[in-house]
Amino acid sequence: MKRLAGLSALAVIISSTSGCGWLWGEDGYFRDRSTDYLEARQTAPMNMPANVDAKRIDPLLPVPRNVADSVDTPEKFEVPRPQGIQISEEASEFSLQKSGDSRWLVAQRAPSEVWPVARQYFENSGFRIAEERPQTGEFITAWQPASELAPAMARRLGSLLSDSDNDVRVRVRIEPGVVRNTSEVFVVSAEREQGSSADVAFPARTGNASLEASLLDGMLADLSSSAEHGSVSLLAARSYDAPSRVSLTQDGNGNQVLNLSTDFDRAWSSVGRALELANLRVDDVNRSLGIYYVNLAEGARQEEEKRGFFSRVFGSEPSKEEVDARAERYQVRLTSSTNGDVQVSVEKDLNTVAPEDVTRRVLALIQENLG
Q1: How far is the C-alpha of 252 from the C-alpha of 345, rounded, in Å?
Q2: Is there a contact between 366 and 276 (Cβ–Cβ < 8 Å)?
Q3: What sections of 17-99 are H helices per DSSP?
Q4: Alpha-carbon distance 201 to 216, whole Å?
Q5: Extents of the domains making up the chain
């Protein structure tokens, strides 16, 4: 107790001391040291004994010359501003990525912009387009010998084929990139003996890695040049990543479902975009189960919108309890069917289908915003 009283008395004495110069002043214990670096001086480098073999020790934080010189620093000294980072204006919007034997092209453009110039590159190189599906970003060329291609392409690929007399065809797939409004372009090749009618399937990842790398290198140069003209395919822009056929049908139990004629990846992307365009709130997703968890009582959540000062102070936005009280939560489920299509259904939970009117309303909104 006596110790506490002594400390209190000391605090009163310190607080009553006029100016507290010995504590906070220029010579005080807690003085401002923020400008001490201006008085720093460079000293001679450290010298190691002659019989010691050691690598050179460089200063970790060297003092700038305009501070460490022998001239006294003026009272008003303006610290020079740091130089801005130089960004090359010639940086390409396209780049090649590699992982093991796999190579692909990354474009800082939407798939609908990459599609027409990628397709044009192969046509200009002498490839004949046998199949094309803008909705899934894929086209396949016909079987051709290298001699039928454009001269420059024929010379390039002739030496890369397993046999110079083989026929070759390629499959080009343009997928949405990880980052929004980017694309990833994959090229896979297949070969067969010239004149053969065998239907050789494309490999899962890569066929002739050297040949595919050569095609990607050429396409990289062509895309970089074509991008300056801003070519855009209106067909691809309108229907890219959308199912080629959408229909309302019924499942085996008589429940209404939306049938999408596409693979699961494209269907998942398309339905997610359709829910956003329909202004339906998605609270959570589970891609492995193919489920979008929606709340029909709320509009789509805009993550970029921030709550303002008055909204936080006066509580103009609903609380979590209020949102939960009026919630209308359902599950939009995507299921792959045996024929390769994808069915979209609406459920209340895992074991309960949604009411018929809710199912009809949600599926109609998705269908309306798919294309």
Answers
A1: 12
A2: no
A3: 21-24, 65-68
A4: 21
A5: 94-238, 246-301+320-368
Contact 340, 319 (CB under 8 A): no
Q: For residue 219, what pLDDT is reported?
A: 87
User: What is the C-alpha to C-alpha distance for residues 241 and 201, in angstroms, rounded to an integer?
Assistant: 24
Q: Is 330 helix (H, G, I), strand (E, B) or coil?
A: strand
Q: Report helix, strand or coil for 334.
A: strand
CATH architecture of structural domain 94-238: 2-Layer Sandwich (3.30)
pLDDT in tens, 183-196: 889 999 888 888 78
Specify whether the backbone of 290 is left (phi greater than 0), alpha (psi in -120 to 50) or beta: left
Orientation angle between helical segments 264-277 and 356-368, nearest 10 degrees: 100
The strand pair at 352-353 and 281-286 is best described as unpaired
Q: Indicate yes or no: pTM above 0.85.
A: no
Positive or negative: CA dihedral 135, 136, 142, 147: positive
Fold category of 246-301+320-368 in CATH: TATA-Binding Protein (3.30.310)
CA 93 to chain centroid = 14
- Specify whether the CB–CB gap between 39 and 71 falls below 8 A: no
The conformation of residue 36, written as its DSSP 8-state character, comes to G
The DSSP code sequence of 210-279 is: HHHHHHHHHHHHHHHHHGGGT---HHHHHHTTS-S-EEEEE-TTS-EEEEE-S-HHHHHHHHHHHHHHTT
pLDDT digits (tens, 9 = 90+) for 204-217: 777 788 888 889 98
pLDDT of residue 306: 43
Q: Give 136's DSSP letter.
A: G
Torsion angle of C-alpha atoms 29, 31, 33, 35, degrees rounded to 10: -150
Gap between the Cα atoms of 366 and 369, Å rounded: 5
Q: Is the pLDDT of residue 295 over 50?
A: yes
Judge contact between 330 and 358, C-beta under 8 A: yes
Structure tokens at 26: 């220029």
